[in-house]
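Researcher: Following up on the earlier apo prediction. This time include the ligand. It's PRP, with the SMILES given after the sequence.
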Amino acid sequence: MPPLVIAVPKGRILSEALPLLARAGIRPEASFSDENSRALRFATDDPAIALIRVRAFDVATFVAHGAAQLGIVGSDVLAEFDYSELYAPVDLGIGHCRLSIAEPVEMAAADDPRGWSHVRVATKYPHLTHAHFARRGVQAECVKLNGAMELAPTLGLAPRIVDLVSSGRTLKENGLVEVERIMEVTSRLVVNRAAMKTRPDVVPLVEAFRRAAAPATPSDAAVAA
Ligand SMILES: Nc1ncnc2c1ncn2[C@@H]1O[C@H](COP(=O)(O)OP(=O)(O)OP(=O)(O)O)[C@@H](O)[C@H]1O
Ligand SMILES: O=P(O)(O)OC[C@H]1O[C@H](OP(=O)(O)OP(=O)(O)O)[C@H](O)[C@@H]1O
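Model: Understood. Below is the ligand-bound prediction.
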């Protein structure tokens, strides 16, 4: 049987994913945690498990198509793609943020979201944005960007944005405020549904991730002390 491939996002999730992989008993070769390495596929100390490092938005695509059997991906990306081939059995409790609508501070002072009937929005999440506004009976026109959404209002690209917010610092430093939350986001373990049925090595690994993600209870801490 070929090695099981786990897709892990490069960028900000990687640093939070490393301790989680260690707790799940997955020990990658040293270059995996080196952001400067140009390698994309990495061995682990278990010849039956390999890791690939891909863009956060591509993790879902690799796993949905069976190119990787498991992956770590934000629930924002999962909701944006909505792949039926993906099963997301474990909330990994990392990558906490939220997807929100934001607009310039001055605009927010005189704006009432309940009065919106049509909005033009810059976002990396056109599907989620359309779906959210459609539920509210608002027609949304999306300008798709892949980053730096916060520039859109001041440069006249779109008066509002839909983007991820964590500390709120990026919004603040660009003169924007959050006016509505769309969803809370954490990273999930995703599994290719067909691989789950056909490969006996998938379920034990899902269980290893489940144990690795479980928050330590006070009694665990007492045992450890
Ligand atoms: N500010 C944040 N705080 C916590 N988690 C975040 C934050 N921003 C993004 N995330 C999570 O990390 C994932 C990847 O983030 P993002 O899309 O910004 O990619 P990136 O790490 O900048 O890499 P890329 O170069 O592929 O865009 C998101 O899908 C989301 O789940
Ligand atoms: O509320 P904050 O803590 O400031 O975080 C929010 C920022 O984090 C994400 O971008 P990221 O840093 O991943 O860069 P990107 O624009 O390249 O995706 C997101 O797109 C915001 O810009």
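Model: Residues 12, 147-148, 163-170 surround PRP (ligand 2) (CB under 6 Å).
Researcher: Noted. I'll compare it with the apo version next.
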